[in-house]
């Protein structure tokens, strides 16, 4: 059972900090929420801070149970009262906040795994033990490396450097390293792009085959001892290009890089009188990563959707008045 624990050394967030919250209640004054990274401390988003667009119904902006990214605009340290803003957060900031949250959840899971060696603990004892792990491991590493997650990633290759100043016994250290390796070792992901390649000159099919071959070879030459690109006929003249990589971002970049694969195919086929159209830009086709991409896209589209909704409402009201 997971223990509710703040992820960071500061007991409260600071003004202008980005936080991830879960909506708990909506009333006429605004939205109540809990700060997921700060031990579920209560926070409040005043109605004017919900959206840059005119608000007709709060339920059109958010709902109970929804996870949102917000900015801290006021902190009452004495009463632990926190005012937040949703409208001041753009898509890039939302992604950054969710990335930090994801890192913090990974660190929490790794630390909680250490508690398994202590057997069954009641919730109070477990909370105290987890706090001790944060105080002795996670927070000191965050002060040195920026985030404990980044320190754990470095520990995959150089554990002695990471833990040289951390005061933990050897048994705890080994359990910690085992869980770091299990949770943070890079997992392979599949990258796919789809292209349409045609050639109606005399070179025909030979030119298409030659262009695809040169594209694959260009990727292989840049990836010595690394992943290779496979070409599959989806439905001629549409072909899929696939590769399995450890570094997701590099795979996405490589498949769409100006000197690799797609543009090599394009240059080659156009030189022989053919054409290439990209039908699907490189994407990750593993389910988990597709969900992440959808979340990012939703964040980017939030403001536009809210504004469009309000504009539609305005138009409806104007029509009603005319009638």
UniProtKB/TrEMBL annotation:
Claim: Protein biosynthesis is one of the keywords in the record: yes
Keyword Signal: no
PROSITE patterns cross-referenced by the UniProt entry: S1
Domain S1 motif: 16-87
SUPFAM superfamilies: eIF-2-alpha, C-terminal domain, eIF2alpha middle domain-like, Nucleic acid-binding proteins
GO cellular component entries: eukaryotic 48S preinitiation complex; eukaryotic translation initiation factor 2 complex
GO molecular function term, any single one: RNA binding
Family, similarity comment: Belongs to the eIF-2-alpha family.
Protein name as catalogued: Putative Eukaryotic translation initiation factor 2 subunit alpha
Organism of origin: Streblomastix strix
């Amino acid at each position: 059972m997971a223990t509710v624990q703040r992820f960071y050394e500061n007991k409260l967030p600071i003004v202008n900090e980005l936080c991830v919250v879960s909506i708990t209640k909506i009333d006429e004054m605004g939205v109540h929420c809990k700060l997921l990274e700060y031990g579920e401390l209560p926070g409040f988003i005043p109605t004017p801070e919900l959206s840059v667009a005119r608000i007709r119904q709060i339920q059109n902006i958010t709902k109970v149970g929804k996870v949102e990214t917000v900015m801290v605009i006021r902190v009452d340290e004495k009463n632990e009262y926190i005012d937040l803003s949703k409208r001041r957060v753009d898509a890039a900031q939302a992604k950054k906040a969710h990335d930090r949250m994801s890192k913090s959840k990974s660190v929490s899971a790794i630390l909680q795994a250490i508690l398994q060696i202590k057997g069954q603990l009641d919730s109070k004892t477990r909370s105290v033990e987890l706090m001790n792990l944060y105080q002795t491991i996670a927070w000191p590493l965050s002060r040195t490396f920026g985030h404990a997650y980044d320190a754990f990633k470095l520990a995959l290759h150089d554990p002695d450097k990471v833990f040289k100043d951390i005061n933990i016994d050897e048994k705890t250290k080994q359990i910690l390293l085992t869980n770091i390796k299990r949770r943070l070792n890079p997992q392979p992901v599949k990258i796919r792009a789809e292209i349409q390649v045609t050639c109606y000159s005399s070179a025909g099919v030979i030119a298409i085959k030659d262009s695809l071959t040169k594209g694959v070879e260009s990727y292989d030459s840049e990836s010595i001892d690394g992943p290779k690109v496979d070409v599959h006929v989806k439905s001629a003249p549409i072909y899929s290009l696939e590769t399995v990589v450890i570094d997701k971002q590099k795979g996405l970049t490589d498949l769409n890089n100006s000197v690799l694969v797609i543009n090599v195919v394009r240059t080659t086929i156009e030189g022989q009188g053919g054409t290439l159209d990209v039908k699907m830009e490189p994407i990750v086709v593993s389910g988990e990563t597709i969900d992440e991409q959808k979340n990012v896209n939703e964040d980017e589209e939030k403001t536009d959707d809210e504004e469009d909704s309000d504009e539609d409402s305005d138009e409806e009201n104007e029509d009603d008045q005319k009638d």
